[in-house]
Amino acid sequence: MPPNTAQLSQTDQAESTYDSWRTKLINDTTYVDIEVDSATLFDGAWEVVKAVFTSWDKEKLKFVQCKDGITNQLVRVTDTVSKQSVLVRAYGKGSERIIDRKQEIVNIITLSRQGLAAPLYARFRNGLIYGFIEGRVSHVDDLRHPRTAKWIATRLAQLHQVKLPIQPTDSTTRHQRTPLSNQDQQLWKTMRGWLDQVPEQYTDPRTQAIFKNRFNLNHIKAELDQLIERLEKLESPIVFSHNDLLYGNIILNDTKEEAYFIDYEYGCYAFRGFDIGNHFNEHCGFEFDYSKYPSKSFQFEWLRWYLQAGSNGGKITKKKEQREHVPDFLFFFLGGRECIV
């Protein structure tokens, strides 16, 4: 067969159509041809802001660098006249190796249209500028406090009902199937992708010695394959998931008694049980204090809040609780496994 004449399979055609639609959605978002340098973060943030908010006066702006995340640098810019704040986020160098930046933009646009994320104003060469959510960043203790934990469970139930917008295609393609199936989830692809980024040999001898002494990458990959085989049998529902619900990605508004989520870098279709289980692991904090892991009674209370919020006012029976909980509880072990992966 001559080059470039191979016929695409139905799945490949669907993927190609979806990628084309995604590219169009991203290209419709304002683009600022500026790169923000970490060494001159405020100056770079100003260049981006003035291109988007042309009436703002630099002398009347307040710049505050937020605590750096693992993969980003963040600046809050506030116009002291209008009192409006925006966030300028510069991607960490090389972070695109583990984060699908195109999908992140689709996530933000989709969620902002449904009131679940701040609006996206523009993208620039190495980052985004978007709205600021009023509230306070949660603390690890907020995750297990009944009052705030209920807000989080309620918001996650709303998030899990989100459907990503799609380009209308043939009704037989996977992007229009409901309910979603294992073919739609991206969790395994993401986790395997992370493992593939681990080098076989570190250039620093000390780092290499520590890695060789503590980790066996082949064993970890084999263990992940075993987990995948077992966990797929549980039939946990496929939902749009945040996949990184640590306390630093949760904003609490004590006045409105609501929780909001930020940083949808890892958002994708995944198993509902993973999103919930991973969040429960975050109760232990960065110190991995598993004495703080939620008790079984707290887990069931949390899941009752979650199910009630997702039932649109319907009654949650004991039988439904048990049917919904069991498959997901087993998935919580994968949330702990993520600490290694």
In short:
This protein is of the alpha+beta class and 341 residues long. The protein is built from 10 helices and 11 strands.
Would you tell me which CATH topology of the largest domain applies? Answer: Aminoglycoside 3'-phosphotransferase, Chain: A, domain 2
Domain count, please report it.
2
Overall pLDDT: 84
Distance between the termini: 42 Å
Overall spatial form: globular
CATH class designation of the largest domain: Alpha Beta
Can you list the strand order of the major beta sheet? 1-5-6-4-3-2
How big is the Rg? Answer: 22 Å
The amount of beta strand, in percent, is: 5-15%
Helix-strand topology string: HEHEEEHEEEHHHHEEEEHHH
Report the biggest beta sheet as strand number plus sense, adding barrel if it closes. 6 strands, mixed
The helix/strand class is alpha+beta
The CATH architecture classification of the largest domain is Alpha-Beta Complex
Number of strands: 11
Instruction: Provide the low-confidence segments as ranges.
Output: 1-11, 167-177, 332-341
Helix content: 40-55%
Counting DSSP H or I runs of 4 or more residues, the number of helices is 10
What is the name of the CATH superfamily of the largest domain?
Answer: Aminoglycoside phosphotransferase (APH), C-terminal lobe
Protein name: ethanolamine kinase
EC number: 2.7.1.82
Keywords: Kinase, Transferase
Organism: Absidia repens
What does this protein look like?
- By secondary structure, the chain is of the alpha+beta class.
- The chain has two domains: 110 residues, Phosphorylase Kinase, domain 1, CATH 3.30.200; 202 residues, Aminoglycoside phosphotransferase (APH), C-terminal lobe (Aminoglycoside 3'-phosphotransferase, Chain: A, domain 2), CATH 3.90.1200.10.
- 40% of the residues lie in helices and 15% in strands.
- It has ten helices and eleven strands.
- The strands form three sheets. Strands 1-5-6-4-3-2 form a six-stranded mixed sheet, with helices on both faces. The chain has a three-stranded antiparallel sheet with strand order 7-9-10. A two-stranded antiparallel ribbon has the order 8-11.
- Helix 4 crosses helix 9.
- It is globular.
- The N terminus and C terminus are likely disordered.
